[in-house]
Structure formats: structure tokens, C-alpha cells
Amino acid sequence: MAKRSSLSIRIVEGKNLPAKDITGSSDPYCIVKVDNEPIIRTATVWKTLCPFWGEEYQVHLPPTFHAVAFYVMDEDALSRDDVIGKVCLTRDTLAAHPKGFSGWAHLTEVDPDEEVQGEIHLRLEVVPGARACRLRCSVLEARDLAPKDRNGASDPFVRVRYNGRTQETSIVKKSCYPRWNETFEFELEEGGTEALCVEAWDWDLVSRNDFLGKVVFNVHRLGAAQQEEGWFRLQPDQSKSRQEEGNLGSLQLEVRLRDETVLPSGCYQPLVQLLCHEVKLGIQGPRQLIPLIEEMTSTECRQEVATNLLKLFLGQGLAKEFLDLLFQLELGRTSEANTLFRSNSLASKSMESFLKVAGMRYLHGVLGPIIDRIFEEKKYVELDPSKIEVKDVGCSGLHRPQTEAELLEQSAQTLRAHLGALLSALCRSVRACPAVVRATFRQLFQRVRERFPSAQHQDVPFIAVTSFLCLRFFSPAIMAPKLFHLRERHADARTSRTLLLLAKAVQNVGNMDTPASRAKEAWMEPLQPTVHQGVAQLKDFITKLVDIEEKEELDLQRSLSLQATPVKEGPLFIHRTKGKGPLMSSSFKKLYFSLTTEALSFAKTPSSKKCALIKLANIRAAEKVEEKSFGSSHVMQVIYTDDAGRPQTSYLQCKCVNELNQWLSALRKVSINNTGLLGSYHPGVFRGDKWSCCHQKDKTDLGCDKTRSQVTLQEWNDPLDHDLEAQLIYRHLLGMEAALREKHRELSTSTEAGSVPTGPGEALEDPLAQMLQVLQDLQEAHSRSPASSEPLEPNCLLELQT
């Protein structure tokens, strides 16, 4: 069993930010740090004081993290980016909001004395003496200190203060992982101060020393224990009066902390088997649980529940059957064909999640080239006469301003070309569509045709498919390509308008060009011939898409399962050593890497033959490298063993913090079950005769920092975690247990009034009664679990003086 923490983060928007550029505006973006370590960087929104991001992330963390901070930055091309302000949410604050923190938060000034990080290793003891006892403080080492100097490191020393006396350690140059092993003694006097203060500082030759953090101990509490030793988190200096909030603008956030104790797989088997049995029975099962879950799930939770259920059934190989059950339930309560799958029902939300999990790679293959072309061309496109701006376009080749009519016609031609290219790519992609997606759409098509068989409803089965494929998958990806991982940055205003108009056109095609869709925006009429032709193309595509036989489906699934599907791929720079010596003797060479479930491989070009670099089973750790090691903050190291069992390290450079964390996350997830994973590592490099991080001269020395194998980002192509999904479903059902029991009482009463059980086993076949029993058993298993009562910080042996 394991205790897991995760943060659901949505960075919505900012408002009233201060102007940082001479133009009276700013180019804001956000950096998210967990315990001062950068995890996420949003895209930059150019030239605005009220940016909208709308970016969502899920971060898995160890339960011992302390705070998450959101820094709003202003991007500058020629100098260091400016810090506008920050919002910091502690773990305790998030834990006090079980449904999550949501709303506007004022940005506060970033005070260097509060920007501390890392831990310090101390041994404290009370030593009896002839006249009086003495307090002995041994300063052993520190790790992950904040880099305060331009070289990406610090020159740390420690100042120990007690009862008016101060003693200091030696200075360790250029290290965030110093080792001192120095001991100081103070005489304990009656009536003396209770507080022992240990402060870490960065030494500077020509300017003021920088504060790195402090730890304050209660000496009287130490007296009872006589001796304590451990790692202690450095705390900020909060003695200063804070600047008034509100004058730096605000940030709208949605942040939710979830702590889960995941039990062994066997504990969840009764729950999984009960749900799977219902899905296999379909709509024939008595007292169904899935409709009850949908009925009792609030609208705001429905997407999360749908995703968890979908992933659970995907892991059991029953995703198609689960979705088919939902299709039948919705069809059974729908009388008007034009309202089918238009609500935020469990069927609609589950199908959205299914397409993102099973069809994202397919979406990238079809849509990616069209989106790239639109971003590269940056053409001015507008069809609405009320919004057209001639001045934005300038002059044509005839050296005269283009007329409004010419701009409208040119825009229509551009959009017709993009829409035609997209429909052509879609029509050619039948065989590229994943087999499980094709089979699900075939099932949907058949169910809708059975429910609405008349001639007047002949388009309804097609619209049912396009309502998901076009309206809920392709169109949202066109409008916000960054949120679907199609682009690294948000579109500028001109490109965004082109994407919106293209998405509207795709929606019109998906709606089968109905009169209602045409009447909404009459100025879309110039695209009508392409839309009309697109409807015929789309119908032909869907007909071919759903024309898949069971044998063909199984063959496709079998062939796909035999392939080593890439988990992540893209260009990276690999470190090549040219000889022993200083930093100048090393370089990075650009190669194209591919991570599969078997190995990390590389090639000179994306299409050339790949060479295996590291076997997946040999990975021991994937961690960041100190900035000073290679002069870049985006370098990672993969520690592994070669075929002879010898330890090796590869250094790979990424182009940005997001790419760095995505690669680290992918490597950690695929190697999580490896034997021999490291608990510590060196964040520096062994250059010359010592480690650059802690200055130790033994190359085989144990690492000076702890590994962070639990810090990962959730992505659409993550491997399924069956136990976690079952735990999340259990947690949701537990929240509605009272309502389920009330429903069971109502059903039992009506059954007793209407009929008498025919046999002793009939009551046991009631799925709702079985569900309530399963929930009770899981509650008892959690209460017996030692992980549920573990302290969050086992290493903090002494209480801090506040």
C-alpha cells in the first residue's frame, strides 16, 4: 500500500497586473513551484495586463510537500524576466479546502528572505557538566539550498545563535549541497533563552550576505530527549512587515489537493468485479449501479467520475462495453433526436475522456500539420464584416489598400483551403484510427440507428458520431491547440481568430449543415460550398469508419499490442565529453529520442533508424542537474547500469522547463517498478577529481540529495494505474454512501410491498446491497492500513519554535 498526493491545478487568468514594459503593457506567464522547485511554466500571453491562460495540470507528489507557489513573470527578450508577484498556498491551506481552493488571490511582492528552500542536517544534544549542562549543536550538511549567485550556486555558511552568543561555520564555496561536520557548544544557564536559532547564509564578497533559511528549536523540549538528529526544513524569515496586497494585480486559480492511501490490489477486487459484472450484463441487469452513480453525482464532479470509471474499464478491457451501456441508457431516456448527447451526461463526459485517452495520438496525426501551417502562415482572416479591419493588412502587391470585399474573399479562400485539407486528412485516416475507437463508434452508430430507424432520422446516427468526433474533440483542439498538446504556446490574436473560424466551420460540417446551424451566423455563407461538400465527405468517412468486423478489430488490437508504442519522443541534446577538464571541454549534440515501454532510444533524424541507449529495466533514477554544471537549468540525468552492471549516467538537455519535467515524469513512470531504484543522487557532475555539487572526491560517494521519483505530471498517454482508479471511485462512492443507503431502503420497501422473495439467494443478488457491503469492507481495510496513520514528516524530530 502507498500514500499518494496529487495537485489538480488550473491557472485561469490574471487581472490588473502592473506594466513592466515601456509600452505600458506586460508579457505575462506563470511559473508553478512546489517547495521552490519549478514544475510548470504556462505559455506567455503577449502585450496584456489581463492575461487569460486556462491551462490545467495534474501533479503527483510525495505527501511531504509543504507549499505550492504561483509566480507571475514578465517575459523580456533582451534581459532577465521580471518578477511581477506571487501567490503561495501552503499544504495546510489546501488541506482545509477538501473541495479545492477556487477564486481570485492577490499577488504579493517576492521577498528574497522568504525565497528559501532545502534542508539542513543537525545533531543536537544536552551534555552534562560539572557546573552546568552544555548544549552541543553539530552542523553536518545541507541539501538543495537556494542558488543565490549568478553561477547557479551559493557560498553557504551557518550561523548558530543561542542566549546572545553567535558562532559560525566555515564557508563552502560554490555549492548548494555543502558539508561542514562542525560542532559548537553553548552553556545552558537558568533563566536563559529557550530558543536555539540555526541560520544558513550565502557569503558575498562585495554585497550583503543573502539569507538562505533558518530553523528555530525549543531547547527545553530537547532536554527531555537529551539527543536528537535529523534533517530539518529551512524556514523563511517572516519578521518583516508585508507590503499591502492588491497593488500587484490578482490571479484566478483552481487548486485541489487530494491525499489517497492506495490499498493492495486484492482489496479492490470485489468493487471492480461488481462494476464489471454490471457492464457485462448491460441494460438487462436489475437495480443498476451506473444510473444511480450518475443520478447522485453533481455536475461539477461528473467529468472526474467519468474519467475514473473510463480508465477503470479500459484497464479491464471493457471500455467499449461500458460506453455502450451509457449509450443505451441515454437513448432510453431521449425522445427528441436533436437533443441526443447534447447534455453533460455521464455518457457525454465518459466519451470525451475516452477520446482523449485512446485517440489523442490519432488527433495529432490528423490535425497537427494543419494547425502547424496556420501558426506558421499567420494570415489575417476574417469573415464577419462588422469585425474586419483593413488597416491591419496593409497594402497588396498593387500598392493600394485592399478593399473590404477583397479581404473577405481572401479570408474565405484561406478558410476553404484549411477546411478542405482537414477533411481530406480525416477521410484518409480510417485505418489510422485506433481499433477500439472505431469499434466504439460502430456500436454508437448501430444503437442510434436502432433507436431512430425512420427515414426522417437518417442523419441522426452520423450526427451522433460527429457530436463527439467533431464537436467535442476536433473543434476544441482547433480552438485551443496548446491544451491538446498540439502547440507549446497559445495562439496570438490573429491566429486565434483563424482557428476559431475554422472550428466553427468544422462544427457546421459536424452538424450536417442543418438550416439551424446556417442561420446562426449568416456571414459564414462564403464557406457553404466547402461545408456542403464536407458533409458528404464526412458521411463517407463515418460509413467506412464504422464498417469494421469483429475479426478485423481483434487483429488490429493484436497488432497494436505487439508494437512498442512511444511513451514520449522528441529532440534532446545529449552531452558529449571531449576529455577531462573544465566546463569548456563539453558540448551537447542534438538527437531525436524515443521512450517506449522497452528502452530509451535515439536517432540522428526522426525518420532514421533508432539505436537503443538505455534499456528500461536498467534505469535507476531520472533527476535534474544543477544549473552551474552545464550553464543551463534544463539538463536532466538518467542514471542506469550497462549490460555488465556498471553504473552509468547520461546527461540530456531540454529546451524549456516544461519539456524537462515532461521527460523526467515519463522516465519515472515507466521505470517505477524497477528493482534497485536509487534513494539519493548527485545533482552535479564529477569533473576533475570531485563532485561539483558537494565537493566530495569519491566518485562512488552516496548522493548528497534525495531522489524525487514520486514527482510526476499526469498526461493523456500515462500508463493506467488500476489500483488508484479503483481507490478514486471508492472515495467518490463513499461520499454518496448515505444517499445509496436511503435508496436501498426505498427499493427494499417497494419490493416487500410488491412481491415476496422466491429464494434465500435473491437478496444477495441485489447489486446495491453488494455495493454497500463492499464500501463497508473497504472502510475497514483503510482503518487497518498503517499508511493512513503515518505522519507526513517522519524526519522532523524536534518541534519548531514559532
Automatic annotation (TrEMBL):
It is found in: Cell membrane; Cytoplasm, Cytosol. One of its GO terms (cellular component) is plasma membrane. The keyword Zinc-finger applies. The keyword Cell membrane applies. Pfam families: BTK, C2, PH, RasGAP. Signal peptide: none annotated. Residues 301-511 form the Ras-GAP domain. InterPro entries: C2_dom, C2_domain_sf, PH-like_dom_sf, PH_domain, Ras_GTPase, RASA4_PH, RasGAP_CS, RasGAP_dom. Residues 744-763, 778-802 are annotated as: Disordered. Residues 565-672 form the PH domain. Keywords: Calcium, Cell membrane, Cytoplasm, GTPase activation, Membrane, Metal-binding, Repeat, Zinc, Zinc-finger. This is RAS p21 protein activator 4. GO terms for biological process: cellular response to calcium ion; intracellular signal transduction; negative regulation of Ras protein signal transduction. It is a peripheral membrane protein. Residues 1-105, 116-232 form the C2 domain. Its main location: membrane. It comes from the Eukaryota. GO terms for molecular function: GTPase activator activity; phospholipid binding; zinc ion binding.
